[in-house]
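Lab notebook, bench 4. Continuing the backlog of folding jobs that were queued last week. Each job is logged with the same field layout so the records can be merged later without manual cleanup. Today's entry covers Endolytic murein transglycosylase, a 375-residue chain. Filled in by technician R.K.

JOB TYPE: sequence-to-structure
TARGET: Endolytic murein transglycosylase
LENGTH: 375
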Amino acid sequence: MDNNNESKKQEMIEKMTIRKKEGRVVRRIVTIVTLVILLVVGIVGVSGYFYVTSALEPVNPEATTEIPLEIPMGSGISTISSILEENGIIKNARIFKYYTKFKNESNFQAGDYIMTQSMTLDEIIESLKTGKVYREPVFTVTVPEGLTLDQISGIIEKNTQYSAEEFLTLVNSTEFIQNMMGTYPDLITEEILNGSIRNALEGYLYPSTYSFYEENPSLQEIVETMISLTNDVVMQYASILEEKEMTAHQLLTFASLLEEEATAQTDRETIASVFYNRLDINMPLQTDPTVLYALGSHKDRVLYEDLEVDNPYNTYVIQGLPPGPIANAGKISIEATLNPTDTDYLYFLADAEGNNHFAKSYDEHLQNINKFLNQ
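JOB STATUS: finished
OUTPUT FIELD FOLLOWS
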């Protein structure tokens, strides 16, 4: 019995000794693995730090070679970052993108630039913000707000080698219109094919100053540049349009009415509220610029007989919006269309000085006429 007890005791001691040894081995393994993980994390962290730090520095501080590059109109920060990396101006597009977001930089300008690899990120950003163009344009074309295609044709003829007739032939060409519909499907839809529309692309050439850097760009290139900018501007509000269940065509049509009603001191948001209020109660918009567009001629004063002209653009005889824009609208009118003032006004008029006076009822409107127009 004693021998058996002694044997069992010895066996237990041996097992405990083995377990202690195994425990020490496990602890060593855990310690080693932990140290390895910490070392790897440390190495990755240090490497990442130096990698980011390096990417924030100029590609080559000693470089003097000038590198030309183009930032296309409508480019976002992702596109700009990729262009800079592809041209060797920055080391890493993603880090440049994060850097601009961290510094809350935006509003970069399109254009042709000449940069070097010695430029810092801040210098690059400043250049892109100011839109400094290092290559002078061959010519520019300025298209003001509130113009029709007929009026724009005169600007094209004056500033380019193309005639007004060639311009109007192009913008009314079925082939060109279909091409633009395919290129900008979210902007130019089948709504422009409505048989009541006088010019399919009326209102789709954005008012701005356009710079061209080649001697003789094609007429199609000139016109498409203007349509492309309209697309860039309108698509900024895509989510708002979806929320309002409004199409791009309806937006440009509504905005064109505001643009034509505008004077130097016009409150477009309040005029927009008048139009929306009228639409809500199925009241004709009765805006004189649509009458002038229907007549196809300019008049200093719209006569009562003009208000009765039978034309799909005449908002004195039709309900709702006209079939399409009556002019090109600027950003202020577009934003006023999307963000009208909340009012109960149904009438407005502009006095001789361009100040607007609004009324909730026709009687109040008549009082404004007697007060501000019959003086």
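OBSERVATION: DSSP finds 14 helices and six strands in the chain.
SIGNED: R.K.
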